[in-house]
Amino acid sequence: MKEKAAARSASRPARASAPRRAGAATPAARPKRLVTRKLARAADDGYRHDLVPGIKATEDADRLATCLAVATQRLEFPGPFPEVAEAGDVEEATFLAFLLALAGPENPERQAALRAARPAWEHEGETGLGADADRTIAAYRAWAGRAGSQRAALAGEAGWMPQRRFARAFERLSLPGFGRSQRFEFLVVLGAAAVFELEADALKVGGTDPTTVAAKRALVTGETMFLERRAKALAETAGVPIAALDHGLALWDSTAAVEAPEGPVLHSARRALGLS
C-alpha cells in the first residue's frame, strides 16, 4: 500500500509556486499598440490582483485595461452609432438604436444595412433581421404603444436621475428575444447619443451573454451580488463608468484585435491593475 501511495504521489504534477501578494503585478515592457486576443489564455506569469482574481497573466491584464479604454471611448458623444444622434426625431433615433442593439455586434453587416436604411418607426415593414427578430420588434412596438410612445416608455418621471431611468427601463424592457446584452446596449447607445439622460447604475449581469461569462472569469464569482460588487470596484478604481465594463469585458474575452487609445483613461486602467 505504501508503494502504491508513493507511486500515486510521484505521478502527480508539481504544484504551482505560491502566488504573488494581492495587488502586485509582474513588471512588463510597455505593451504594443495592438493587442491580439489568443484562442488560449496567456501563460501564468505570476500576475495577481485583488480586482481581477481570475486573471493570472500580465498580458491578459493589459488587454483588459486596453478594452476598458476602448469601451469608455465608445460611451462618449455621439456614441458607437452617430446615426442615432443625427436622427433628430426622438422616436426615429430610439427605434434605430433598438434595431442596432437587436441585430447585435455579431452581425456587423446587418447593423451596417440598418444604419444605411434607417427603417422608420412610423412604417412597419421588413428589417432583414429575420422572423425571430420581427416577433421581438412587434413586442417592442406593443410595449411602447401601451405608454403612448417610445419617449414616454423610456423617459419615466421628469425628476428621475439618469441611473434610475436606466435601471427602470432595463427592467421593463424584458421582452422575448431581447436579452441582457441587447437591453444594456440599447440604453447605452441612447445615453451616449444624448437621446435620453441614461447612465448605467450596475452591470446587470445574468444569463450566458458574453459580458456575464467574461465577468465570471475575470472576477471569479458566480453570485450576482458579489459579481456586481466586484464589477463596481473595478470600474471605480480604473476610473471608468460601470457601463464601460459591458463592452470592455466582452471584448477582452473575445478573439478580436484591439488598438489601445492612448490617453488618461488607458493609463488610469493600467495603474488600477498594477501595470504602471
Tell me what you see in this structure.
- By secondary structure, the protein is mostly helical.
- It folds into two domains: 34-75 and 204-272, no CATH class; 82-192.
- 53% of the residues lie in helices and 2% in strands.
- α4 (90-103) runs antiparallel to α5 (108-117), α4 runs antiparallel to α9 and α10 packs across α12.
- The longest helix is centred in the first third of the chain and has 17 residues, at 58-74.
In short:
The protein has 276 residues and is mainly α. It has 13 helices and 2 strands.
N- to C-terminal separation? 53 Å
**What's the order of the H and E elements?**
HEHHHHHHHHHHHEH
- Gyration radius (Cα, Å) is 22 Å
Adjacency order of strands in the biggest sheet? 1-2
> How would the global form be characterised?
elongated
* Total DSSP E strands: 2
Q: Biggest sheet, in brief? A: 2 strands, antiparallel
Low-confidence stretches: 1-39
| Proportion of strand residues | under 5%
What's the total helix number? 13
Average pLDDT figure: 88
Write down the domain tally: 2
Counting helices, strands and paired strands, the structural category is: mainly alpha
In percent, how helical is the residue content? 40-55%
Topology:
Blueprint: H1 2-11, E1 34-36, H2 58-74, H3 82-86, H4 90-103, H5 108-117, H6 131-147, H7 150-155, H8 162-172, H9 180-192, H10 210-219, H11 224-238, H12 244-252, E2 257-259, H13 264-272
Antiparallel strand pairs: 1-2
Helix pairs in contact: 2-12, 2-13, 4-5, 4-9, 10-12
